[in-house]
Design brief:
The protein has one domain: Spore Coat Polysaccharide Biosynthesis Protein SpsA, Chain A, CATH 3.90.550.10. With 185 residues, it is α+β, with helices and mostly antiparallel strands. Helix 6 packs antiparallel against helix 7. Strands 1, 2, 3, 4 and 5 form a five-stranded mixed β-sheet that branches. The protein contains eight helices and five strands; from the N terminus they run E-H-E-E-H-E-H-H-E-H-H-H-H. The chain is globular.
Length: 185
C-alpha cells in the first residue's frame, strides 16, 4: 500500500531553488515544499499542508507551528552536522530541527509547489494528541523561546491551542486538521 510519493519534478524544482537561493543566502540549509494529503487512493486528496515560503515568514510561523514539511526537504549536510543533527526527541524531532537551524542563523526556504503526496489516516491524527505529546510540546516551546523562536505570547497561544488539540478525541482532531489546518486548496 502506497504511503507517500514524491512528484516526478520534485528534485528538479528543488535544485532550481537551491541554485536560486544559494547566491542570495550564504547560510541556506533547507529547501522544502508543500504537501498534499490523500485518504485511500492517491487520487483522493483530502487536504494540503501549506507552509510559508520565505525566511522571515518561516521564522514567524515557527513560533506557532512547524514551518517545514519534513518529507519534502533537501538539507545541506554540513549545516545539519554543524547543529548536531537530529535530537533525541521521540516526538517533535523535525520541528526541533527547524528551530535549531533558525536559532543558529541558517536560512530555510519552501517552494510553493506540492512536492509530496502523503497518506493520512487515523493513526496520524492519533499521534498528534495525548498528554505525553502535550507535555513535550509545551516543554519544547519554552526551550525554543529561549533559543529566540517565539515569545511568551506565542508560547501561551500555541500551548493553549495544543491543549485543545491534545484532549480532543481522534475524530474531532481529524476534522480540525482537515477543515482548518490542512484545508483543501
Amino acid at each position: 500500500m502506497l504511503s507517500s510519493f514524491s512528484y516526478s519534478n520534485r528534485f528538479e524544482l528543488q535544485i532550481k531553488a537551491i541554485n536560486k537561493y544559494k547566491d542570495i543566502y550564504s547560510r541556506l540549509a533547507v529547501v522544502g515544499g508543500q504537501v498534499s494529503e490523500f485518504l485511500g487512493t492517491e487520487y483522493n486528496i483530502v487536504g494540503y499542508r501549506r507552509v510559508p515560503l520565505v525566511p522571515k515568514e518561516i521564522e514567524r510561523f515557527a513560533a506557532y507551528r512547524s514551518p517545514i514539511n519534513n518529507p519534502t526537504v533537501m538539507i545541506n549536510k554540513s549545516a545539519l552536522l554543524n547543529i548536531g543533527g537530529y535530537s533525541g526527541l521521540n516526538v517533535l524531532e523535525d520541528y526541533d530541527l527547524w528551530v535549531r537551524f533558525l536559532s543558529a542563523e541558517y536560512v530555510l526556504v519552501n517552494i510553493p509547489e506540492v512536492l509530496v503526496n502523503m497518506r493520512v489516516d487515523n493513526n496520524m491524527y492519533k499521534r498528534r494528541g495525548g498528554i505525553k505529546y502535550l507535555h513535550t510540546y509545551i516543554k519544547q516551546k519554552k526551550i525554543w523561546k529561549h533559543k529566540g523562536i517565539g515569545t511568551n505570547r506565542t508560547v501561551v497561544i500555541s500551548s493553549l491551542a495544543m491543549i485543545g488539540n491534545a484532549i480532543f478525541p481522534v475524530l474531532l482532531r481529524k476534522i480540525l486538521y482537515q477543515r482548518l489546518l490542512h484545508k483543501r486548496k
